[in-house]
Amino acid sequence: MSIPLAGMSLAELAAYVSDHLAKQGIDVVLSGGGCVSVYSDNRYQSNDLDFIERYREDRKKLAAALDMIGFKPKKRYFVHPATPFFLEFPTGPLSVGSEPVREIAELNFRTGTLRLLTPADCIKDRLSHYFHWGDKQGLEQALIVAETFPVDVDELARWSQQEAMQDKFDSVRDRFLNTPSNNNANILAE
Amino acid sequence: MLEALIGSTTCEKVLIYLTARSEGYLREISDFFGIAPAPLLRQMEKLENGGILYSKSVGRTRVFGFNPRYPFLNELRALLTKVLAFYPDDIRERLKDNRRRPRRKGKPL
To answer: How many domains does chain A have?
Structure first.
């Protein structure tokens, strides 16, 4: 059943699409800047919802499933007249840098259940943009998420080393250590 | 050499070229292998859409290279490096002979 999309927030729409596709047998996970929007309560705004298919499906099957809820293909995106948000399905696999994603987060909204990267993987995903493309916005997005969700800095360091980006991580490590969420976590631990 | 695996000799040539030279643009790869630009571009765009290559604009030229965020990049490079070792000597030498340092405009050879 199709429900009105107008007025849905990015997270509500993402949950609606993710839920609908799951019912059609298409398993997708929200990645990219959309996760930052969800985890930052829209302090970072994105109109682009990047879904990664866990097991690559036929594009025709995907298009047919999205057509059922009114999304039409436009170049490599899917758009809907009632919402400014657009959908993209980049080629997988679901990964953060060269490592596969093992854990998927689930958030419930009135429109459905959203499956997305965990905050920790979202931070790595954004950091990989900063590491490989020098994209400073990627770093800022990672920090926005880290402000709300305590981050395991040692794990970030391990992953950065795996990505051959230890020096780059060392240059920003203190910014992750000094986020309010990490300071609060340290106070609670003491 | 990888045709059975990747389904296209043109695709293999793009990958081998970029393995040897890190970056390349349509015209130079087309000239190097003597392949028409259109099928070559199709393969390059297919590889870009698949997340294996990136492209960036340098002036009016679209330069392609391996996407550093591709999760299987190290393994792919290792395979392609081995494949390159099986290429004929003359092609490997020509691929290595890659003048990229600056040349002043109008400088005599």
So the answer is: 2
